[in-house]
Amino acid sequence: MNGTDPKSHLPKKPRLHSHAPPHSQPSNSIAPSDILSEFSHHDPSVARINNGSFGCCPSSVLSAQQHLQLQWLRQPDHFYYNQLQPGILRSRNIIKDIINADHVDEVSIVDNATTAAAIVLQHIAWAFAEGRFLPGDAAVMLHYAYGSVKKSVEAYVTRAGGYVIEVPLPFPVNSVDEIVQEFRKALELGKQNGRRVRLAVIDHVTSMPTVVIPVKELVKICREEGVDQVFVDAAHGIGCVDVDMKQIGADFYTSNLHKWFFCPPSVAFLYCRSSVKSSELHHPVVSHEYGNGLAIESAWIGTRDYSAQLVVPKVLEFINRFEGGIDGIKKRNHEAVVEMGEMLVKAWGTHLGCPLEMCSSMVMVGLPACLGISSDEDALKLRTYLRDKFHVEVPIYYREPKDGEVGPVTGYARISYQLYNKVDDYYKFRDAINELVDNAFTCSSLRN
């Protein structure tokens, strides 16, 4: 589905496969005009092809959230004692069903995947501190792990005495096998000199550059190689890729609900496999619920706004207005972003950053080499320039060229596709880059 009327907006080519024909829509399906209304609070002048960073929330869900906020402010004692915990439990039950967990007790709601990472890594640090893990035992994580998660590994695991190994991943990526081979090498390194690999941190969808990681295969390898615990950081998981706890088999799995699941910021879930002792897991903010289980601890960490955690039923109501529910939305977003990515690389004579089967609702698109992107700073300044001059919002990634490469693509844009996006958003981006190329622009002009 698209954010506008296909007849009045979409060009004949390229046709988005994500647009189902009208006769195939169920009677309760949402109309294009309804989508426009649900996201009318977005700035209409901006081609926002960066849903991956901050997500989006429909107006109907925002209204429900505001109603809850006012209920709290009107009579907070009543809300706290009679509504808050039952409401959070309803949200946890919905998440439990969506992710195919065995029991609601395996699901806690926290404010962000970053908080979930802190919970898991604090748990690992205590294992070192209490002598269950030995100094020098290893933790393995991907080189493209999210920056804050890397910092959390440093703050908790390295400081506690763990030996951290980063799995180097190629980019562009040509196949799943490349990732599997590098991961196996890292596990072997972690087991050298009699060490044990105590933890593997695996992204489900890396943020930048974005690639879908074969999590089920990597978790299986971890089990075969005797890794103690596996934590899947899936900040982009729910609503973006298939999320099934029984199939994935990780000990811990977290995903934000405000990125691809239409919740307001900020809310995430942390799944903890039932085999992990819940008494050993604690929220890093200690409240009077300490010791009552992670889910209960997380449901009250002091006076704050819990409304984002309570609107999950309203979000599900919004999602179920679409054919196929969240799976249908996810499929259409994937097909649309791939088609837009292919349109862009054809226009610029470049390539995508990975095979189509390793793309989610986000795709890495190679930018023309003549733009002269030669550092992370160049990438950030070009992103700012696109925002300020062309009203295009898209993250830019710098890839350091390999020795001997001639005229390499060093800059990639991470484009997203979500319900509110229009084909014109991607044409606007294409035309902005074409204008820069035609004007012989290079990033050197942005350097002070």
The CATH architecture assignment of the largest domain turns out to be: 3-Layer(aba) Sandwich
- SSE pattern, N- to C-terminal: HHEHHHEHEHEHEHEHEEHHHHEHEEEH
- Largest β-sheet summary: 7 strands, mixed
Give the total of domains: 2
What is the highest CATH level, the class of the largest domain?
Answer: Alpha Beta
Name the CATH superfamily classification of the largest domain: Type I PLP-dependent aspartate aminotransferase-like (Major domain)
The beta-strand count equals: 12
Low-pLDDT stretches are 1-27
Give the overall shape, derived from the CA principal axes. globular
Mean pLDDT: 91
Question: How would you classify the helix and strand content by structural class?
Answer: alpha/beta
Q: Widest sheet: strand order?
A: 2-8-7-6-5-3-4
Residue fraction in strands: 5-15%
Share of helix, binned: 40-55%
- What is the radius of gyration? 23 Å
Summarize the topology:
Blueprint: H1 6-9, H2 32-38, E1 47-48, H3 51-54, H4 59-74, H5 76-98, E2 107-110, H6 113-129, E3 138-142, H7 147-160, E4 163-167, H8 176-190, E5 197-203, H9 215-224, E6 229-233, H10 245-248, E7 252-256, E8 268-272, H11 294-298, H12 307-310, H13 312-319, H14 325-348, E9 362-366, H15 376-390, E10 392-393, E11 396-398, E12 411-416, H16 423-438
